[in-house]
Amino acid sequence: MRVLVAGGAGFLGSHLCDALLGEGHNVLCVDNLITGREDNLAHLTNESRFEFKIQDISQPFDFGKVEYVYNFASPASPVDYMEHGVETLQVGSFGTFHCLEYAKKYGAKFFMASTSECYGDPEVHPQVETYWGHVNPIGPRSVYDEAKRFSEALTMAYLRYHKVDTHIVRIFNTYGPRLQVNDGRVISNFMKQALTGEDLTVYGEGQQTRSFCYVSDEIEGILRLAKSDEHLPTNIGNPNEFTILECAKKVLEVTGSKSKIKHEPLPQDDPKQRRPDISKAKRLFGWEPKIQLEEGLKLSLEYFKKAVARTAVAK
Ligand SMILES: NC(=O)c1ccc[n+]([C@@H]2O[C@H](COP(=O)([O-])OP(=O)(O)OC[C@H]3O[C@@H](n4cnc5c(N)ncnc54)[C@H](O)[C@@H]3O)[C@@H](O)[C@H]2O)c1
Predict the structure, then answer these.
(1) Is residue 144 flagged as an active site residue?
(2) Which atom of ligand 1 is nearest to the CA of 95?
(3) Which residues, other chains included, contact 201 with Cβ-Cβ below 8 Å and sequence gap of 6+?
(4) First to last CA, the chain
(5) Contact (CB, 8 A) for 194 and 188
(6) CB–CB of 66/2 below 8 Å?
(7) Average pLDDT in the 253-268 region?
(8) Is the backbone of residue 178 left (phi > 0), alpha (psi -120 to 50) or beta?
(9) What does each C-alpha distance from 181 to 6, 44, 217, 250, 307 come to in angstroms?
């Protein structure tokens, strides 16, 4: 197949490009590099089945016939979507619209990368797909949460009204090589701080929980969902829950760092708990994650060491 990956120069998108090439497809990656990096695709320079185009998908585009459209384009970390709030709303609305129109035009399937943020600060725990969420529609995080909720609504509308074959994944915190070092996400923050000898910043008492999925597990789940007949949103994430404090300690252990832990006030609307119920993915296509936090951190360590050194040189 010829497949399009929007947001393919980002962390997850670039791993998805690798996986799709690995399955023998021709991959057309489009990205406007607002938060992604061409470096993430450097290893594909000589790959004849890979094309890269700089394109803002919030503007209309047409690169000819494709059989599958994967929409992974959006600033994704709180640091990025707070900085690019309007662009985040645009890519979640116009961007998703253009991707769906593109899929409709060529009779292609469509895959939407949505997020656990659709559940907001959840009152149901763990989060099951049938839970509608608890989102502040006007808070600082709303630029991202509501953009993704709109993307989901639009995707369902193209399924219902235009019969586009669509799929929606709700991705929970994912980490691994190519995660940006300065994006403020928990793992990248802790890794960077531990490797540079800074104190690790824990918000509040650090008793809020998160679950972390290693990137290869996430991509495997995404590919299985993409090949399934399921149209409704499906959680893909690791259900093993850690408090932020436990996670900070694990990072200190894996990096062997002597850094300390410092506490800062909780940001507004910071979810207290986040953990996927993955029984649907297990039941539908037998997926569950294999790599647990400690192993995933070890697998990511080399990347973070190099990335932190590169950032220091750049400074
Ligand atoms: N990493 C996670 O833990 C996580 C969790 C939930 C959801 N997601 C979703 O997965 C997708 C990928 O996230 P990521 O972690 O790889 O983030 P990322 O920032 O590394 O990648 C996003 C990519 O989209 C590109 N992009 C943004 N706006 C664009 C536009 N208008 N036109 C073209 N390209 C554009 C960026 O340049 C970047 O390369 C996002 O949609 C995100 O919401 C990620």
Answers:
(1) yes
(2) 31
(3) 189, 193, 262, 264
(4) 42
(5) no
(6) yes
(7) 92
(8) left
(9) 22, 22, 21, 18, 7
List alpha helices for the chain, DSSP H. Answer: 11-22, 78-83, 85-90, 96-106, 142-162, 186-196, 215-227, 244-255, 279-285, 293-314
Angle at 17 between CA 12 and CA 22, to 5 degrees: 125
In 3D, which of 54, 58, 63, 47 has the Cα closest to residue 8?
54
Query: What would the pLDDT profile of 100-143 be if each residue is shown by its tens digit?
Result: 999 999 999 999 999 999 999 889 999 999 999 999 999 999 99
Cα of 260 to ligand 1 centre, how many Å?
A: 31
Catalytic residue among 144, 158, 175, 214: 144
- Asked if 146 and 89 touch (Cβ cutoff 8 Å), the reply is yes
Type of residue at 296: G
**Up-side HSE of residue 272: CA atoms within 13 Å toward CB?**
7
Report the half-sphere exposure of 227 (CA within 13 A, side-chain side).
Answer: 11
Number of alpha carbons in the 13 Å side-chain half-sphere of residue 313: 6
Q: What is the chain's percent helix, strand, coil content, to nearest 5?
A: 45, 20, 40
* Bridge partner list, 109: 68
Ligand 1, residues 35, 87, 88, 89: which to mutate, most atoms within 8 A of Cβ?
Answer: 35
Instruction: Name the token pair of 32.
Output: 């406007």
- Which tens digit of pLDDT belongs to each residue from 132-186? 999 999 999 999 999 999 999 999 999 999 999 999 999 999 999 999 998 888 9
Structure tokens at 122: 């959840």
Atom in ligand 1 nearest the alpha carbon of residue 174: 3
